[in-house]
Amino acid sequence: MSSTIGISPSVSLLQGSRTVLGACPHDCPDTCSLITTVENGIAVKVAGNPAHRPTDGVLCTKVSRYTERSYHPERILQPLRRSGTKGSHRYEPVSWNDALADIAGRLQAIAANNPEAIVPYSYAGTMGLVQGESMAARFFNKMGASLLDRTICSSAGGEAMAQTYGAKVGMKVEFFAESKLILIWGSNSITSNLHFWRLAQAAKRGGAKLICIDPRRTETAEKCHEHVQLRPGTDAALALAMMHELVVNDWLDHDYLAQHTLGWNALRERALRWNPERAAAICGVTAQQIRSLARDWGTTHPAAIRLNYGMQRVRGGGNAVRAVACLPALTGAWRHRAGGALLSSSGTFPVDKAALQRPELLAGRAPRTINMSTIGDDLLRESSPAFGPKIEALVVYNSNPVAVAPESSKVVAGFARDDLFTVVLEHFQTDTADYADYILPATTQLEHWDVHLAYGHTDVLLNRPAIAPLGQAKPNTQIFRELAQRMGFTEPCFTEDDESLCRKAYGQRVDFNLLLEQGFATLDVPDAPFAHGGFPTASGKCEFFSEALSRQGLDGLPDHLPNYEEAGSSARYPLAMISPPARNFLNSSFVNVRSLRDIEGEPLLEIHASDAAVRGIASGAVVRVFNDRGEYRCKAEVSARARPGVVNGLGVWWRKFGMDGTNVNQLTSQKLTDMGRGPVFYDCLVEVQAA
Ligand SMILES: Nc1nc2c(c(=O)[nH]1)N[C@H]1C(S)=C(S)[C@@H](COP(=O)(O)OP(=O)(O)OC[C@H]3O[C@@H](n4cnc5c(=O)[nH]c(N)nc54)[C@H](O)[C@@H]3O)O[C@H]1N2
Ligand SMILES: Nc1nc2c(c(=O)[nH]1)N[C@H]1C(S)=C(S)[C@@H](COP(=O)(O)OP(=O)(O)OC[C@H]3O[C@@H](n4cnc5c(=O)[nH]c(N)nc54)[C@H](O)[C@@H]3O)O[C@H]1N2
Ligand code: SF4
Ligand SMILES: [Mo]
Q1: What is the pTM (predicted TM-score) of this model?
Q2: Interval between CA 123 and ligand 2 midpoint (Å)
């Protein structure tokens, strides 16, 4: 290999082209290792790295077309200043100098009065630790701006994991390939966790049974041996009834329970109240299905659960994840390396957040926290002692809240406020950029440094820039560096460069030379992490009973909490709507990539034949989907993917590409989950009419 610094010189010499090792930046569990081929300074191809085991040389359709996104003719390549009313899409080019000077001046004026009136808004448009919360966090910490509670995706499940296992940790993903039973629970792996699906296929070839637990008959559900098509928001009831069966049939690992769990007696008592008939009535499946599922779980070894975030986007989402996460301990599944459960592996990564974010820049201040999931309401709030100052400025990066945040009518009204100063760092003129005072051109992953963790495997990845920044684009870090300078922030940490930030992220805990050489480094994690207990909880045990939850006044044991908007509870809005990801988009990213949008066609609502028939809706008809929060037009597809009483509105389209300039979040609510303060996108009642 010699000193290839992640670039292959042999290729470079022979063909005038070179390859550069990178990492997929998108919010996907798989965090693939990328090989970008560059010819004459232009990236011509992005491929999966065959040397990286989790990637296995394969990328999803979206990222194999990455050059189409990076060189998109509509990339924003110079700073833009608004020249029309908000939302009117009228912008004029402006120099970096003028843009930064004006932005710094505006922020300084607000900060002089109260810096908490300034709010950063960001999520995982890139999961990079450097282009995410490093220089940006330093900048907002120094200013004393409001903090952002980054809840929009996984905080209910994350909190549930923390209160059960102690952190977001679980099985090593590669060993799913050796399991004999896999429950794919609240996850459409083929769409959103493709590399896990390849492992599940390997297990299947080895004789494993695959069972999918999902209200939608997804492409994943179709390819499993069984599909338990429950109602949304009923997973805890199902898990408790499984426990009931494990107890009455004594499919328990008594030794594991005694040594490595906390609260078994109490959980056992609770489970005994959940016979399969009771759960069946709630879940909308048969008691026989539940008995069979429990028998499979209780009698097959090794057995594993791949749960994903789909189940936690409802009121009781945290409880649901906790209930499911308990199951492997009942049967001692953790004893085998191919047994246990995995929601997210991100808690395994020893990231030195403080080195990246420098919380000491807060200098003793404790700014208020804004929850990103209620940005609609919060942008419309006046100053008050409880809330703090009215929000006067928003700086958005790595996120598209106008499209992805719940209850869009409020979000749009908030972003449209004339007295709000909004800066958006973006690649494209997204729905959110439409409301910006300034749009600043950001680099893509092909153009900047970054270092990554993953939530679906346990390898650290390094991303090297493959090409120079396009146009006048700058990395997020550089934009915040230059803003910091104009704000007069003189600490040396505001001049640290990206490569140095990449090194800081893991410090000595990961071999940076190895990252430079091969693009990834595998963390040292035991094959069967909890075979002998040792959970990272205070007790060291799997906590069925959580003292911490109990102290917060919550139930210390997992339980079924009905949805806020429970199916059958409203005559006006009788249908439950879920809005899971579309296969060729990644949240709202890629919606503007023509070839991918063409595959998705139009915004779609899947509806069961019986629900369509009573409403006179034919497949292909344009429908109005509505509730008290709003209305959304899309195309109906009468489809066996929908169960009776549940419609599937596939997400997350850019509003401006929708039929009437809206998307599915027109209908979702800003209520929050039982734990983790997360959004409840899939806890949503609607009615549907032919338009
Ligand atoms: N192609 C593609 N890949 C993606 C994404 C994308 O948008 N597109 N999004 C990425 C992101 S941000 C994330 S967080 C991850 C994971 O994203 P997730 O939101 O977990 O997405 P899915 O894997 O599609 O799993 C959701 C599944 O849960 C089902 N579901 C809905 N409600 C319930 C319920 O109450 N109970 C149960 N059991 N199932 C339910 C849905 O029908 C769907 O099939 O995927 C990432 N990968
Ligand atoms: N109804 C409904 N709504 C949902 C969901 C759902 O299932 N249903 N899923 C939810 C989930 S799980 C999530 S995670 C959120 C996701 O919501 P977001 O985190 O907002 O994700 P994206 O929609 O992908 O938007 C990310 C934006 O970041 C930009 N970006 C990417 N890289 C960079 C960079 O390096 N610099 C800068 N400045 N910008 C960059 C991209 O161009 C893109 O516009 O959506 C949530 N919304
Ligand atoms: S989106 Fe996921 S599957 Fe696709 S390349 Fe990125 S990490 Fe891999
Ligand atoms: Mo997400």
Answers
A1: 0.96
A2: 7
